[in-house]
């Protein structure tokens, strides 16, 4: 199918579009100009020195590609800290020196054979809604997009939802769908990227359960014989531009020039039900509960919680913890918006 260029909007035009078509992001992605200029991060996060000072000690992994989404794909990966990774970005020729003894997959020779740079994609900046770092990207979303993230219990603890990507030219994020059916954006602070997106309605043409996702730059006819039936939506992302898409849109991103990019995950009325039905946050919440079992048992002395701790399935434990938290919250006075979100989540979980 012929590709479609993702439409580009100035900020005021995008705000009018969302006001008149609140579900537009389910229909197609959008590029928005003029939004990130409001951010302090558009100035402070474009300096590698500033980023090293702020986040250099944070543990990260860096992979080539960022991760794999096809059964037969190869990758390299190192476990390091963000400061060391940024030294690599400044001087990739120091690869062996910087990552000696830190390879968790492959090694420097395998990396060269892949002809890809390492790419750090799991820097964890936010663990609760009051983190000061969020002030660097305020406002978080363009008007009049609503975000309900702060009303969802354990939202920032049970998943990484604020991302800072620093990437070398050639860095690859293969085709994938984000966990938890979130709405998401890429906000380009520096450099250039190229993105290809596919609608969730086209998933049978670009994904197979036994293989994973296709490579949009080199589709395999034998593996994905109907790939031409999927419509690619394409955009070049430039500094100051924001690419935003709806829940379950698959995306493939290549860094064209050394880049700094912010990504943020959004839950609102468009995808709250889909988020609640997702399995990924349940597993993460279950793992948190197991890690802090005594605390959770003390706070939630319910028979179902005790039984869930005996279950080996983390997703089941996460679901039971969320049910308990929602019921307790709804039994107390709440602001209207918070009550609406929690009531819908409870209804979805109880009916699942």
TrEMBL record:
<dbReference type="InterPro" id="IPR003347">
    <property type="entry name" value="JmjC_dom"/>
</dbReference>
<dbReference type="Pfam" id="PF13621">
    <property type="entry name" value="Cupin_8"/>
</dbReference>
<feature type="domain" description="JmjC">
    <location>
        <begin position="132"/>
        <end position="283"/>
    </location>
</feature>
<dbReference type="InterPro" id="IPR041667">
    <property type="entry name" value="Cupin_8"/>
</dbReference>
<protein>
    <recommendedName>
        <fullName>JmjC domain-containing protein</fullName>
    </recommendedName>
</protein>
């Amino acid at each position: 199918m012929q590709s479609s260029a993702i439409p580009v909007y100035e900020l005021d035009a995008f705000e009018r579009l969302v006001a008149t078509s609140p579900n537009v992001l389910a229909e197609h992605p959008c590029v928005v100009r003029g939004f990130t200029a409001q951010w302090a991060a558009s100035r402070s996060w474009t300096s590698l020195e500033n980023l090293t000072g702020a986040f250099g000690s944070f543990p990260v992994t860096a992979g080539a590609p960022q991760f794999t989404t096809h059964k037969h794909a190869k990758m390299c990966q190192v476990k390091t800290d963000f400061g060391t990774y940024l030294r690599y970005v400044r001087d990739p020729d120091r690869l062996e020196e910087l990552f000696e003894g830190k390879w968790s997959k492959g090694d420097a020779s395998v990396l060269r054979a892949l002809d890809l740079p390492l790419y750090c994609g799991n820097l964890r900046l936010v663990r609760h809604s009051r983190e000061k770092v969020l002030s660097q990207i305020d406002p978080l979303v363009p008007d009049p997009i609503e975000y309900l993230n702060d009303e969802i219990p354990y939202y920032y603890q049970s998943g990484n939802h604020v991302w800072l990507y620093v990437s070398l030219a050639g860095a690859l994020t293969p085709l994938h769908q984000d966990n938890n059916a979130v709405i998401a954006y890429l906000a380009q602070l520096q450099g250039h990227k190229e993105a290809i997106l596919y609608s969730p309605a086209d998933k049978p043409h670009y994904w197979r359960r036994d293989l994973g996702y296709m490579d949009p730059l080199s589709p395999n006819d034998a593996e994905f014989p109907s790939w031409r039936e999927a419509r690619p939506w394409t955009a070049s992302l430039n500094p100051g531009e924001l690419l935003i898409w709806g829940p379950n849109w698959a995306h493939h991103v290549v860094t064209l020039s050394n880049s700094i990019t912010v990504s943020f995950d959004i839950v609102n009325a468009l995808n709250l039900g889909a988020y609640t039905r997702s399995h990924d946050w349940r597993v993460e919440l279950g793992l948190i509960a197991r890690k802090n079992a005594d605390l959770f048992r003390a706070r939630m002395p319910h028979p179902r919680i005790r039984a869930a701790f005996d279950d080996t399935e983390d997703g089941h434990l996460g679901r039971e913890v969320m049910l308990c938290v929602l019921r307790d919250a709804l039994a107390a006075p709440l602001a209207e918006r918070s009550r609406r979100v929690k009531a819908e989540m409870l209804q979805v979980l109880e009916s699942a």
